[in-house]
Design goal:
It is a single chain. The protein is α+β, with helices and mostly antiparallel strands. It has one domain (16-181). The protein contains 5 helices and 7 strands, in the order ααββαββαβββα. A 5-stranded antiparallel beta sheet has the order 5-2-4-3-7. Helix 3 packs across helix 5. Residues 1-19 and 183-187 have low confidence and may be disordered.
Length: 202
């Protein structure tokens, strides 16, 4: 794991950390994944509420998890690990943006961990890498209605955001699976209310 997490906070109104929105630099980074970055940026300039389909494999890969399990992974990353890269929600699933190559490597690592063995609560994870594409939410996060509940939980904020690799996501997935089998005596909380402070990335 040679990459170093970005440590510059993303500031919202009043100077408070706001992990949902996408900065202009973050939009430039997202657009760079496409064949025609300038056209993508021009589209967003005119229609900031428009979701866009972007290819994976060169700028980022995506690990696609069911929402509840993805939230557990995200909590592990922020509570016990180095933080996360950009994270979005789309059609009831969580998209964790990862370093290129993660989609090819992570399934093998999970297989070595006997992923899906008896007694483990294992949801279906999808991996989007070279040759795949994903729909990313509009740039403005929660600030306007979005189709299919599409929104950013951790918006990209720089032209070179830190992205977790397969080993880090393996670590988060294994711990999320372990936490899934524990029985809680507490009622579920409003998970969507949690905000991840990008200034805490280590």
């Amino acid at each position: 794991m040679s990459s170093t997490p970005h440590e510059t906070p993303l500031h919202g109104p009043g100077g408070h950390s706001d992990a949902a929105g996408v900065t202009p630099d973050g939009a430039t980074w997202l657009a760079s994944a496409g064949t025609y970055p300038r056209s993508t940026l021009a589209l967003w300039e005119e229609y900031p509420d428009a979701p866009v389909v972007l290819p994976c494999g060169s700028v980022f890969d995506v690990v696609n998890a069911p929402a509840v399990f993805g939230r557990r992974m995200l909590d592990r990353l922020w509570d016990e690990g180095p933080g996360s890269g950009p994270v979005a929600v789309f059609r009831g699933r969580m998209l964790l943006f990862a370093a290129p190559g993660t989609a090819a490597r992570l399934p093998t690592l999970l297989g070595w961990e006997e992923w899906g063995g008896r007694g483990q609560a294992v949801p279906p994870l999808l991996y989007h890498g070279t040759g795949d594409a994903v729909t990313v939410p509009a740039l403005n996060g929660d600030r306007s209605p979005a189709p299919a509940g599409a929104r950013w939980l951790v918006g990209p904020d720089t032209r070179q955001p830190w992205l977790p690799g397969p080993e880090i996501l393996l670590w988060a997935a294994v711990r999320a699976a372990r936490s899934a089998v524990r029985i809680s005596i507490f009622p579920p909380t409003d998970q969507d209310a949690k905000v991840y402070d990008v200034s805490r990335r280590r």
